[in-house]
């Protein structure tokens, strides 16, 4: 990052100058204030610089808008304080679920535009906030929270030894010298331990899974399986599809439904089947997954394994629930597929969103009529 527009992209011999001009690379605690005209080598570098500045002052940030060119390069983007935008009235969201919104139309933000040389230049910088800034609160922002690997391992060992979550967390607090020295809280510890427990299969279970997959492969060479391990060698995610599923996909794989809302009883791992419909209107299975969590990286791994299993032939359309992580993974692995939301998941939200209105029954009937009784697009649009 630099301010001189004639400054070239930095490389090997200019490492010292880059460290001086780029606050994110400085080892000192001095944080530079964003200014119009600053130059950065990448979108990530802009975010890292602004995130460090925000953490130092005591506010959180989030991407606001961005424009992507046809070649996939981001033309411009904005990053703003998370308390930007106007507060939504409770009645406009759900009158049955009153909640306080943290949005207070804060104007603090930056905007960067791609330049001909491939770098990004800050063209908009607004520093003033419409709320108090408390630097000590920064550690509570999700963007600043993280548990380092050695600490994760210690938490898991203590949990296996039967130490409760609260005592487990308190021991880390005492060793660190107080809550303020940590970049996570007890809830983060509880979430990590719950996730680690899902990965901790019972005695012999991991071997049984591997043996089963091996045996099925021996019986039929078209049986496909994949196991994803974590850094400690524990099973994290599974995928498998038999010969019938692979053959069915070749014939009926135009549209695929993917759902991860099922749970197994013992390990509470989401069961995620790929499902299609045959020429008799019957549901058919295209493959199955067992997942340790439901984040973007997990879905990317699963979709790539499934795509590899199906001879790298993506579906024309895929139907899922309204999961942001799924949506992100689909854009990465199936960029050409039409992504649509599952009708059942959409319609089940009618009571949740609309029951508080006096004309709820009439609204519900009208919506159901439009959705289920329309056979043509113009009919649906009219309803």
Describe the protein's architecture and organization:
The chain is α+β, with helices and mostly antiparallel strands. It has 4 domains: 12-144, no CATH class; 149-199; 205-338, no CATH class; 348-382, no CATH class. Helices cover 37% and strands 19% of the residues. It is built from 14 helices and 13 strands. The strands form 2 sheets. Strands 6, 7, 8, 9, 10, 11, 12 and 13 form an 8-stranded mixed β-sheet that branches. It has a 5-stranded antiparallel β-sheet with strand order 1-5-4-3-2, with helices on one face. Strand 6 (224-229) and strand 7 (235-241) form a beta hairpin. The relative contact order is 0.06. The model is unreliable at 2-28 and 96-101 (pLDDT under 50).
Return residue spans where pLDDT drops below 50 for at least 5 consecutive residues: 2-28, 96-101
Structural class: alpha+beta
Main sheet overview: 8 strands, mixed
Distance between the termini: 54 Å
What does the secondary structure layout of this molecule look like, with pairings?
Layout: H1 15-21, E1 39-40, H2 43-57, E2 61-68, E3 74-81, H3 90-93, E4 109-114, E5 120-126, H4 149-160, H5 165-176, H6 186-199, H7 205-219, E6 224-229, E7 235-241, H8 243-252, E8 255-258, E9 262-263, E10 270-277, E11 283-290, H9 296-309, E12 317-320, H10 324-333, E13 338-341, H11 343-347, H12 349-354, H13 360-372, H14 377-382
Parallel strand pairs: 8-12, 12-13
Antiparallel strand pairs: 1-5, 2-3, 3-4, 4-5, 6-7, 7-11, 8-10, 9-10, 10-11
Helix pairs in contact: 4-5, 4-6, 9-10
């Amino acid at each position: 990052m630099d301010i001189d527009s004639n400054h070239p992209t930095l490389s090997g011999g200019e490492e010292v100058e880059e460290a001086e001009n780029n606050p994110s690379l400085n080892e000192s605690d001095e944080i530079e204030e964003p200014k119009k005209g600053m130059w950065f080598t990448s979108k990530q570098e802009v975010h890292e610089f602004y995130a460090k500045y925000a953490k130092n002052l005591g506010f959180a940030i989030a991407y606001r808008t961005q424009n992507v060119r046809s070649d996939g390069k981001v033309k411009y983007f904005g990053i703003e304080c998370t308390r930007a935008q106007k507060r939504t009235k409770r009645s406009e969201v759900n009158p049955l679920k009153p909640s306080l919104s943290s949005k207070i139309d804060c104007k603090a933000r930056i905007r960067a535009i791609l330049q001909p040389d491939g770098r990004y230049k800050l063209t908009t910088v607004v520093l003033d906030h419409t709320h108090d800034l408390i630097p000590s609160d920064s550690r509570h922002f999700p963007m600043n929270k993280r548990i380092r690997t050695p600490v994760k391992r210690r938490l898991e060992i203590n949990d296996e030894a039967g130490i409760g979550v609260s005592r487990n967390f308190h021991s880390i607090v005492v060793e660190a010298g107080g809550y303020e020295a940590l970049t996570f809280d007890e809830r983060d510890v509880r979430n990590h331990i719950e996730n680690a427990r899902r990965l901790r299969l019972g005695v012999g279970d991991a071997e049984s899974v591997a043996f089963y997959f091996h045996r099925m492969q021996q019986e039929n060479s078209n049986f496909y399986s994949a196991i994803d391990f974590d850094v400690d060698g524990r099973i994290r995610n599974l995928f498998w599809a038999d010969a019938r599923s692979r053959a069915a996909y070749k014939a009926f794989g135009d549209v695929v439904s993917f759902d991860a809302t099922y749970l197994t009883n013992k390990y509470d791992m989401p069961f995620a089947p790929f499902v299609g419909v045959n020429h008799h209107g019957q549901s058919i299975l295209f493959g199955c997954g067992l997942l340790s969590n439901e984040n973007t990286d997990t879905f990317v791994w699963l979709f790539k394994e499934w795509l590899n299993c199906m001879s790298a032939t993506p579906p024309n359309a895929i139907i899922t629930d309204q999961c942001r992580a799924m949506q992100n993974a689909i854009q990465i692995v199936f960029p050409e597929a039409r992504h649509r939301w599952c009708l059942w998941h959409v319609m089940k939200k009618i009571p949740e969103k609309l029951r508080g209105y006096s004309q709820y029954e009439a609204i519900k009937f009208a919506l159901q009529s439009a959705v289920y009784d329309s056979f043509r697009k113009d009919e649906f649009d009219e309803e």
